[in-house]
Specification:
By secondary structure, the protein is an alpha/beta fold. A 5-stranded parallel β-sheet has the order 2-1-3-4-5, sandwiched between helices. α5 packs parallel to α12, α9 runs antiparallel to α10 and α10 packs antiparallel against α12. The protein has 2 domains: about 120 residues, Response regulator (Rossmann fold, 3-Layer(aba) Sandwich), CATH 3.40.50.2300; about 200 residues, no CATH class. It is elongated. It contains 12 helices and 8 strands. β7 and β8 form a beta hairpin. GO terms for molecular function: DNA binding.
Length: about 325
């Protein structure tokens, strides 16, 4: 499971699907996951073409246009797919269970078609499927994989900035790259020989040779945003500017300030968490629920429980969106 919680849905009434889809979207996002639009099948006609392995949950109305959901489940199980399944129907949860027994179907969840019962059941099932992958290795794997993606995006932001040759003065780029180069020489004496082979004007080589770390890229982008904010401030001091243009520049400036503030949290909310999870142990509470425990350098205990997992996932999504905003502002 990654940060996208994917659902395969069988529903032949568009209005019903739309209403229930909104409920499920809120549930998934509250657990700290992205919610890609579910694949909705009307009658199961395309069932042979579906890659079931990519879905985290299957939801199905009992009665579809030309087929019963029970028949679809037989096909799915025959393929060796044991993804969690939720059936729902207007006949009510108890009657639905009795109906499924006629077809010797078990190991699935049942819900009433009414929104309240449906929401409650879906929320519990989604929470269950998420907790199954919140062990030590899965949590570490998710955090490390998502951190790598964000680090690569930071690199792409930096590369994009230096590719804007028509908008950015070469002198500005040169000063920034000299700063990056100087920091690397200072912090990594062992890399001096390699660094000296790299022209300080070439940020691409620094990235490709793994000399430029995510932290270095972070510092560079921070400097870029700081410079942009300063530029907007200088533009606002120009005399004779119309009120409309002044307001537009101020809005851009404030927008960059907000983005810069979010970027400041990247080290603590992403890089620090990734490094911490490299040194955690699994423990069990009195309720039998496992969690990851870690000690900070200052001796503070960090407990990675369900609430912390949700917070971590939401931070990944937040910073991914923030980096997209930086890319747009630097275009």
């Amino acid at each position: 499971m990654n940060l996208g919680y994917k659902i395969l849905w069988f529903e032949d009434e568009p209005a019903s699907f739309k209403a229930k889809n909104r409920l499920v979207k809120r549930i998934v996002e509250n657990f700290g996951f992205n919610y890609p639009e579910p694949r909705n099948e009307i009658d199961g006609a395309n069932i042979e073409t579906i890659n079931f392995a990519q879905y985290d949950l299957i939801i199905s109305d009992l009665k579809l246009s030309n087929v019963k959901g029970t028949a679809l489940l037989d096909i799915i199980r025959d393929k060796g797919i044991y993804t969690e399944v939720i059936f729902y129907s207007s006949i009510g949860e108890s009657a639905l269970r009795e109906e499924l027994k006629k077809f010797e179907i078990d190991g699935v969840y049942c819900a009433d078609r009414t929104n309240d019962n449906f929401k409650e059941k879906v929320e519990k099932v989604i929470e269950t499927t998420i907790k199954k992958v919140q062990d030590v290795n899965n949590t570490r794997g998710l955090v490390i994989a998502e951190t790598i993606l964000l680090e690569k995006k930071i690199e792409s932001v930096l590369l994009g900035y230096f590719n804007e040759t028509e908008k950015i003065l070469d002198e500005q780029k040169g000063e920034l790259l000299k700063s990056i180069h100087s920091k690397k020489v200072t912090r990594h004496i062992a890399d001096i020989e390699e660094l000296e082979k790299v022209d300080f004007k070439d940020v691409k080589s620094l990235i490709e040779k793994d000399i430029l770390t995510a932290s270095n890229s972070f510092d560079a982008i921070h400097s870029i945003l700081k410079g942009k904010i300063k530029e907007f401030g200088a533009q606002m001091s120009v005399k004779g500017m119309s009120a409309e243009l002044r307001t537009e520049i101020e809005q851009k400036r404030e927008g960059l300030k907000t983005i810069k503030t979010e970027l400041n949290n990247f080290r603590d909310e992403i890089l620090k968490i990734r490094n911490t999870l490299a040194h955690v142990v699994e423990e069990f509470g009195e309720d039998g629920i496992s969690y990851l425990n870690s000690l900070n350098a200052d001796g503070a205990v960090i407990k990675f429980d369900n609430a912390e997992y949700i917070r971590i996932r939401k931070n990944f999504i937040k910073h991914n969106i923030n980096l997209d905003s930086i890319i747009e502002h630097l275009k």
